[in-house]
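Today's session is about reading a structure prediction critically. Students often jump straight to the picture, but the first step is always the sequence itself: look for stretches that repeat, for charged clusters, for runs of hydrophobic residues. Only then move on to the predicted structure, which in these notes is written as discrete structure tokens rather than atom positions. Here is the chain we will use throughout the hour.
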Amino acid sequence: MINEELLIEFGGEIRDFKKKEVFFEVGHYPSYYYQIVEGKVKMNNFSEEGKEFIQNIFIEGQSFGEPPLFVDEPYPANAIAVTKGKVIQIPKTSFFELLKSHPEVSLIVNKSLARRLYYKSIMAPEISSQTPERRLIKLLYYLRAHDQNNEAEYLINFSRQQLGDLTGLRVETVIRTIKILEKKGELEIRNGKIILISKD
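Below is the predicted structure for this chain, in token form.
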């Protein structure tokens, strides 16, 4: 997303993180801009009953947790490492200095935030829908588009449980729905991996 050398120039540092490491929790106030170099990070919430709902899963090259930086509000979700990896973190004040000095970077950040809002907009009616197939296929196509992968076949690098958490479906429903979508030719299963097939 943002050039790593530019982030480091403005005070960013690369650090390792471990699986299940917590970057921040609900209610914490933001101090850093985070961008993933390697690995995966999820943002989640829990219901009163303790059920996890994953807001999003971020991968290499993506940033997470920016909105509260701009409105000076506490985080509405937790950020937890799904795998081990590396992240660049830059202090909030230094990040704003970077944006002021490089307006083109502000456009990149705005585009990223707009894409996430778009995702929320298209997924909201699907999550409220009673059709698991529509929820799941919308998510899979979003993941491919967000990864900017134009290949005819796209590997979905998420577990069935993660797909369930992202769509509000039980893992058993996800497994059953994947089989239905496979029969319809929307995707293929190879060695247990989900391959999204382009209709183009």
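Discussion point for the tutorial: The mean pLDDT is 88.
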